[in-house]
Backbone:
């Protein structure tokens, strides 16, 4: 492995330590749990707290979305593994300011189980906790079974909208409703061109043959819907856009936010090559790109590939999307 | 090649087109030259213009540093190749607001030649043009021959400081002096763990054997000062920090800005692992990290590796570093 590594068992602790050092103006470690990253503004009295969490290896997600008018506390898991229930619980306690906490996380078995347990513990503490489960990955289940879909980069929009709504002083039910609307309005798809390697494992977590690509791949290398011959960037962009928009089925004139994220090892210039074509395709369907994001927003170690997320907007979502934010990831 | 590509000859045009689409709030294409990206705030009357330029494949550099209180216009070259003299000339014209233009660029033969020609053309137009040549790469020549050193990620600090000084309304000579001080105060080093491939060439531009690393590598794969066995992340961090700080020789108590950039295919979490150790080493020398930057700021296609840049600060540089900025890269 040509990687920057010490002991693979230390990678998450070292990542979090380096992250907190690099962004000490915005975040701190929870004093009682080194697997909880907390915004320096967390716990403001009377304001709904925003919590998320997930496995490591997706940086800047999840920790990078901690900050002002965004996520208040993040539970940090091992590479590609759910945080513990205790870490979610500690994150909820750190985020609580007496107005309740919205836990906005992705639809994975471990996260579902641990958030459920953490919620029970927090309710015993007297903290009101409600959840939104992100399920924006179109390829992971049919639309009729949306509750089975995985959460991917649409989570960033869910956090942005939820954090902004909390910043308006809205009560918990309204924060939950805004975050739920955000993720309901999101559709995502991933395409993989190359695998990644968990350092402790030492070999790639799946394989993609040279000249092939995996359409619908998940953030941890979960199998996609099909393996195809590697196409041109424009053909891939067309395919990704079609998968997302066919599922979305938005009326012409709809304003959308678009997020194109590299998966870790994709050169930045290629993301712009993809986006150039995707934007044309989105506009060709009569949609209006209100705000685009292109970069490494939600990665999977050194996987080669990209994910496209489209969120349909309304007046409230536009206002919340535009609210001033300070976090390392955006 | 497992890459997102159309015709390799189109990659720069498509990158620029996607970039301008994605960041249309901040930038536009020059109407007369599709290889010049211009800030929407460029050409303000009475304000010194800031120009840079360089080869493509380093995104978000160079185009990503166009914006408010940063670079006004960027000349865009082919992958890893200098922009033309005409593009530098057109960038100078786009940036000019009657108070002259500072061209802040890196020390490469093609750029030196083309900026020199562009300057002559611009002077004929009646535009005052002065230049600063970045030479922060410690490994590319001894300190006694600093004028031979290459420019690398220290250029980002040079642009930030130059752009901020221009924003204060300072005259050209003072903008040049501030940018010169910024780069004089920078030292950088790169370490490569894996090569990159120019799509039109189709094979890696150099090779690094598995289990080896190249210390002092340049942004285009220029040979480093030595090939070593691949070490732990901490040992690499120690070596990079020592190379930079031994050359810098700063008195204890000096405040510094630190920029750690991935070279394209390095997972983001590994940058934090490196930074965690580098920060400890920098502080162990009695230096004070005033502001750190960790991310993909100046890449080399999908090269695996990282560069470390340390800029020594004084009161003026701190003020200018902290000035509000809006550009895609920061």
Residues:
């Amino acid at each position: 492995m040509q990687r920057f590594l010490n002991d693979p068992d230390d990678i998450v602790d070292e990542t979090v330590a380096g992250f907190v050092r690099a962004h000490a103006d915005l975040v701190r470690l929870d004093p009682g749990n080194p697997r909880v990253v907390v915004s320096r503004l967390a716990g403001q009295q009377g304001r709904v707290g925003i919590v998320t969490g997930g496995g490591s290896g997706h940086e800047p997600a999840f920790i990078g979305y901690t900050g002002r008018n965004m996520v208040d506390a993040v539970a940090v898991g091992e590479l590609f593994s759910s945080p513990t229930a205790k870490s979610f619980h500690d994150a909820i306690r750190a985020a609580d300011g007496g107005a309740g906490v919205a836990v906005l996380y992705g639809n994975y078995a471990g996260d579902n189980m641990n958030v459920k347990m953490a919620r029970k513990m927090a309710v015993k503490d007297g903290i009101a906790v409600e959840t939104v489960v992100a399920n924006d990955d179109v390829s992971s289940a049919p639309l009729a079974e949306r509750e089975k879909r995985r959460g991917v980069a649409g989570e960033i929009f869910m956090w942005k909208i939820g954090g902004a709504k909390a910043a308006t002083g809205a009560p918990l039910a309204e924060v939950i409703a805004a975050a739920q609307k955000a993720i309901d309005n999101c559709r995502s798809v991933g395409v993989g061109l190359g695998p990644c390697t968990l350092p402790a494992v030492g070999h790639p977590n799946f394989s993609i043959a040279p000249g092939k690509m995996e359409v619908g791949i998940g953030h941890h290398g979960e199998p996609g819907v099909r393996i195809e011959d590697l196409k041109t960037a424009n053909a891939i962009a067309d395919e990704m856009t079609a998968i997302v928009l066919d599922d979305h089925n938005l009326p012409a004139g709809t304003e959308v936010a678009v997020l194109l994220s590299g998966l870790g090892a994709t050169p930045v210039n290629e993301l712009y090559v993809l986006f150039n074509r995707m934007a044309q395709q989105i506009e060709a369907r009569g949609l209006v790109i209100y705000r685009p994001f292109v970069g490494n927003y939600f990665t999977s170690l050194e996987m080669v590939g990209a994910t496209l997320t489209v969120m349909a907007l309304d007046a409230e979502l536009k206002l919340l999307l535009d609210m001033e934010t300070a976090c390392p990831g955006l």
Notes: The CA atoms of residues 129 and 281 of chain A lie 40 Å apart. Chain A touches chain B through 53 residues (CB under 8 Å).
